[in-house]
Amino acid sequence: MCVELRSVGYEGEILLIGSERHAPYNRPPLTKHGLLAAVDTNLGIDFEALGVDCSLGESALALDRERRRVQTDRREISYDTLVLATGAEPISLPGPGAQLCVRTSEDAERARMQLVPSRRVVVIGAGWIGAEIASAALTRGCHVTCLEGAAAPLASQFGEEVAARFLPWWRDVNLLTRVRVAEVVADGVILADGDKVLADVIIASVGVRPATDWLADSGLARRRGAVVVDERRRSSDPNIFAIGDCAIRWSPRYGAWMPGGHWDEAVQGAVAGAGAIVGTDVINDKIPYLWSEQFGRRLLYVGRADTADRHVVRLVDDDPEKWGVAWLDDDNHLVAHLSVNHPLAFAAARRAIEAGQPVDERKLPSLDIEL
């Protein structure tokens, strides 16, 4: 947001407050590579050159909208315009046992130190992040068990038929599906049916919640804990904007609420919010996308699919490691696309979704043919 504000001509004072004691950094590599080795997550931003005053290790505690004041653990700060980018906090499971998560650079370092050969590692959750963690633990020589509530990894997002295609990737993991965790204890995890899974290391990956508890008495409109914003990222208070994990925005494109939990959503939110602050009125409602690296494969997903949408599996004749899935609406428009090890197909699919034209059915079976 600081970079975007300067790029669109904002010349006023910018104060950046962050609860972590180091400058903002790139989080996606933490679960993709940061569990294997220390990685450079530096964003390459020179805040001093931008004229941004950074106050690190300072946490916001309360917001007084009427007086336009933020109370932190150090002081009271006045503002003309406030941008909320407080992110999200990992959800912890019940029980007295130690459980790790991977959200910050310190989290990644702690987890990496625990992932040593032959240790029994239990990963709770087989979603995007859980898969990356399990993959890293395998690479580091751990004995990995993953506990998943659905029938297969990512079944809640893609449906069971598509999710079943991921199962062969997990062959070296003890993947337990359709299970529920009752509690985490000192030497493992107790399941809802009373069974116990022994573990030396337990890593929870069951989701996050917006880090907005400090706004409870502010009167800002929130939905499922996230600050409600429009497509310009403006909240119910015209002087307050919110981007990233702490926000949920209305999407005219989809006619639905869109959470801000992915990297690109935060980037696009900064573009829209900065434009609105300086008065250029940028409406940013781009097609969402995300990527993941797991079990030696790169996944690229673009669009927004419903499990009820019709889907077609797309293949590459001479390479079973490359495949994809196209989701289509009732009018045969492409609404979402998953590409595995095929970035060109991802780029073509994004163009097809943006074009909004019916798809030629003859092109669907082959991932090598542009839609």
TrEMBL record:
Chain coiled-coil ranges: none
Cross-referenced Pfam families: Pyr_redox_2, Reductase_C
Residue ranges of every copy of the FAD/NAD(P)-binding domain listed in the record: 6-254
GO molecular function: oxidoreductase activity, acting on NAD(P)H
Top-level taxon: Bacteria
Needed co-factor(s): FAD
Record key words, sorted: FAD, Flavoprotein, Oxidoreductase
Gene Ontology, cellular component aspect: cytoplasm
Annotated ranges, domain Reductase C-terminal: 289-364
UniProt-recorded name of the protein: NADPH-dependent 2,4-dienoyl-CoA reductase, sulfur reductase
Species whose genome carries this gene: Pseudonocardia oroxyli
High-level lineage: Bacteria, Bacillati, Actinomycetota, Actinomycetes, Pseudonocardiales
